[in-house]
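Re: the request from the purification team.
They wanted to know what the chain is likely to look like in 3D before they choose a buffer screen. I agreed to run a prediction and write the result into the notebook, where they can find it.
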Amino acid sequence: MAYFPFFVDLSGRKCLIVGGGTIALRKAQSVLEYGAVVKVVAPCICDGFDKLKERYKEAVELLEREFEEKDIEDKFFVVAATDDEQVNKKVSEICFRKNTLVNTVDRKEYCNFYFPSIIKDGDIVVGVSSGGNSPVLARELRKKIEGVIPENLDNINKWLGEIRPYIKEKISDEIERKKYFEKIYFNYNEENLTKTTLLDEINNEVFKNIMDGNVDYNNDMPESFKKKYPSLFIDEKAPKEIKDKFYNGKFTLEDFNNDINIFDYFKNTNIACAFGKDYYWAIPLFENIDNDSDKANYSRLKIIAEYQKIPYYDLRDTFKEYCSENASNLEDDKIRTIVTALERLSYSNSSEMYKLKKSIASQVIKLPDPLEKLDKMENIFIKNNLPTIGKVYSCFEILHPDLSDFNFDSDIISPILKHKSTMGRQFTIFSNLIRTTLASNNRSVNDYLDNIEVGSNLYKEIVSGKKSYNSLSEEDKKTMNLFSKHLETLYNNSMKGKKEPFASEKNGIEKIDELVTKLSPNGSSDYNIADRVVRMFCGYAGIDTMKEAKDFIESKFQQAQLRNIQESKHDMTLDKGDFIKGIGDITYLPSILENGCRAKEFLGADSGSDLTPLDTDISIILDNEGTIKEKINRTVASGYGPIYLAIKPDNDFIITRDDDGEKNIINDMTKIEVFKTGVVGKDHYGIEVGFPSTKIASLMLEDYDKRVGLIIAMSNGGYVPVRDMEGRTVFTYDDYKALRNKMSGLSHYKENDYNFSDNLAISEVEEIKDEIEANNELTAKKREKINRVIEEAMQESGLELKTKIDGDLSSGVVELIDTGSTGRGTNKPGDGYFDFMMRLDRNIMSKTEELNKVKQTLLRKLGKEDTNDITSIGDLRLKDVKLDDEDIVDIDISFVTKTDEVSYSTDMALEDRLETIKKIDKEKYNYVIANILLAKQVLKEANVYKKASSDPSQGGLGGVGIENWILQNGGSFVDAMDSFLDAAKDKDFNQFKDSYQIWDFGENHMAARKEEFPHDNFVDNMSDIGYQKMKETLIEYKNSHKLTNQTTKQY
């Protein structure tokens, strides 16, 4: 068995050496060099020990006598090195009995540690051991190692030791720090490296980390750094308050606008430093302005002013990247145009375009005419009733007309595309996009196909006389209206339609009649409309009928599910030939699971990570050596973690270029093309266009993040195993099913049933249930009064108010939606707190002055014109609004841009589930509402209702959190209490949080503004105080109401 190599501090440690010959002398000499205190016992001690005694003095004790057992007492380790085997054996046996470390020369079985063959250069020590099997082999190996150690290594080691505390402070991320030290060693000629050049390199690295916003700095930096980067420091003569404000990054644009004299302190200082680390990216800008620091600083201020106009952080990042890439050519007009484009994307009336805003932005801003291109793209997203993938391809055509900006003679582009004509390339790209999207079980495509299928069937029934259009339900009329829009868009995107776009004054069934004739392959209306639509949209992908499309989707989905469920039962291996793709953090995972992993040109998630055109980058595992982590670390993909996609290539993949060149150049649209690019490494490959999410065999990450499991459960693509770097499954199929069970009743996720608890009716619930109808009537009256006041305010502002979302994007129409508990009937009886979302036109939201006029009119009409109840982002939080002599209420109003579609928000998810419950069982629905109201009442009375950020003394789940808690436990307060207390048993708050989640399956609409994950875990609303208080409250309630018998649980 191999021995573990400990490195031990021997300073002052007591050592006994039994034996006085030359071998004992060598052992004594070696340990004395490391500070040990040595006692030597032997009947005869050789002369060499006298020299050791002379050199190490009190550290050496020599006793010429026989060994005695008491010699071993208080010794850290013992060496038996006599020429008498019986003595050596005796020493060893005593040490074994006393659990003392012992090394017996040349007798492996008498040892519990070995002396390695040592290489020492200053503080650098290398030990080589053969486990006692062959000391000669260890010595020879030592000689080889000595030959590759550079002479200057000890000096480098000492310098790094001196500088390490500085590096540790300035590069706080351990992984980045490790990479940096590796870079120092490998990138420098050790013979020429000096302490000065090493310090210079370290200063460069610290500066780079400052530029990246990873490091704060102050006036206490080393003089070598201040001397090299003087513009990062303010004039020493500046007043203390100016210095403090500068080094704390607290300056604002207003400071410079209000006091021009401040500029005097920045004559030799980079003004971007004054705004804090979020603005350090602007430090290198305008360095090409020679000897004119004032002009450079003025230019930086203009850039910062434009940057602050961009409302969303992800688009701010895009702007920063553009500025950094074009630092020497930042023209004012171009910058203003780019910021205008980014603002328009932020406030787009298209929700689809909003979701893709970063991918669109990264491409559009590089064009000479970004606003013109953006106009065309927005027109596609708002007016074209195509699945998202059709819109994506149309945008691709706008951004890359005729593919003219791609070099198809390049050796890094897809070999299949390389050998086709322009039209052939377009057909191939569109075909692969369609197949990737279908095979990913994309929700947009599924909804499109469902509407075409249902709409065509309804149309047949109307044409045959079985139904009339006027007799259709409202739901069916909506279906037919959308069906009509889909047919119109499809025709207008055909070759005929592009020449002569469809235009008609007719509506309803008459309009559909015209479109059916227009789309007919032979002028007759007697054909399968659904199949015709599928053939027009998917024919290039080899899919010609509705059945083929749905069968294709279902077969790919089921194959992936069977594979992933089965494989999750075993540890995963990463084998030679497997594919790995790093995707960064969780930001892009939802899009990848929904759409497949697409190349950047097709608005793929994390478009910045793809280095080669028209493909998505992957790494191929080149050998089977090492652990999973080691294999990944040897790939280019390792730089794009910490989340990785693992793909096990099957017969659907075809490699068209490898180390041996091009091969397999065939026309087979069923294949996914993989080819070597080698741009940044020999493992660097590309997949033409992209690959479907059903090809993801596993997600891999070192530290499991429960949000990853949530994203998988919410996706349309089904179960995907999540593995750690040992290949173990950390998100199992049972975990997936448990999350899906928590989603029961959410029709958005195709969970159209609800798992009702058997514990819906307890006495207090019965009492509350009888008050629900009266409460709803009272709430409706208050809401009507609020709506009237707000309607007057809107009319005064020249706007029309609607109190529902109906898809009308007409300019001048404002939508006011009650998103709070009052809108769902889950508010406490008599409660007067209303939470509204106001959806305004983009041209109002994007203009601060216009928006403020609307807000001021609202405040005046609500009697709050002098209020300070406005949040930092401009939303209203109004207390005690007097509607009349009868009603005083609290009103919150959040302002968002009106879009063609509302994302599935927190309140929509709650409404969705409650609506499903009501459809299934109206009586049980009332019981569920009563359970929610009871839970809120109990927790409010216990002062553990509001979340910690709103009221630290409470630290509860919050109102929306409580609603989700009850609904995710079958609608029962009893079951919710049991689940909470079960998870809390014998756990502190941190342990509880790790084991118990209450997820928001809708999106928090504030998350995008704050650059946060959009799906809250409501347990994070709590505090330790709130957790303890809630446990006590629930236990007390259950015991006082004798509920333990119902659930057989004891607490």
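For the purification team: The two ends are 50 Å apart (CA to CA).
Please add any questions underneath this entry.
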